[in-house]
């Protein structure tokens, strides 16, 4: 359960679902639950200094890729990321459906992050 991949600084353990995620240099979110963390200003730079969990709030299909919007639970920062082929398609559909129903309800603040363990220590590997 504590199995970790530590070969590159892009690897991380998902704080929401517990998956060990191997980064590919482009993806900075969990392919299983799609949550991310607010650690980067530009992908991979680890300059944000926030460390908040970033909730997937919207999915947008474009011509050549799909863009996932994350919203930081701590500071409210929004960030758009391309999805990865490894991302869970069902999870992407759930985010899109939740975003659609939230838009109808008039807001995106509709789901409590049940498993989000914000108290867990922030890990930096560098
Ligand atoms: Zn996850
Ligand atoms: Zn933040």
Structure description:
The structure is a single chain. This protein has 126 residues and is α+β, with helices and mostly antiparallel strands. It has one domain (12-105). The chain is 13% helix and 21% strand. Strand 1 (12-13) and strand 2 (20-21) form a beta hairpin. It starts with 11 loop residues before the first strand and ends in a 21-residue tail after the last helix. The protein binds zinc ion (2 copies). One zinc ion binds next to loops. InterPro entries: RNHCP (IPR024439). It holds the Pfam family RNHCP. This is RNHCP domain-containing protein. It comes from Pseudofrankia asymbiotica. Residues 10-93 form the RNHCP domain.
Helix fraction bin = 10-25%
Distinct ligands:
zinc ion
Indicate the overall shape: globular
Overall mean pLDDT score? 79
**Low-confidence regions:** 110-122
Number of strands: 6
Q: Quickly count the domains.
A: 1
Computed Rg: 14 Å
How would you spell out the order of helices and strands? EEEEEEH
Work out the strand percent: 15-25%
Structural class: alpha+beta
Give, in spatial order, the strands making up the sheet with the most strands.
3-4-5-6
Number of helices: 1
The major β-sheet equals: 4 strands, antiparallel
- End-to-end distance: 22 Å
Pfam family, one: RNHCP
Protein name: RNHCP domain-containing protein
Organism: Pseudofrankia asymbiotica
Domain RNHCP: 10-93
Keywords:
single chain; 1 helix; RNHCP domain-containing protein; globular; RNHCP; 21% strand; alpha+beta; binds zinc ion; four-stranded antiparallel sheet; 126 residues
């Amino acid at each position: 359960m504590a199995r970790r991949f530590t070969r590159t600084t892009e690897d991380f353990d998902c704080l929401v679902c517990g998956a060990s995620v191997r980064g590919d240099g482009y993806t900075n979110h969990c392919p299983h639950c799609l949550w991310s963390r607010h650690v980067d200003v530009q992908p991979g730079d680890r300059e944000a200094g926030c460390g908040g969990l970033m909730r997937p709030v919207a999915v947008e299909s474009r011509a050549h890729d799909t863009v996932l919007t994350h919203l930081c639970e701590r500071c409210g920062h929004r960030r758009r990321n391309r999805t990865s082929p490894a991302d869970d398609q069902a999870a992407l559909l759930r985010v899109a459906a939740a975003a659609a129903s939230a838009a109808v309800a008039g807001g995106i603040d509709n789901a409590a992050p049940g498993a989000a363990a914000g108290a867990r220590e922030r890990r930096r590997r560098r």
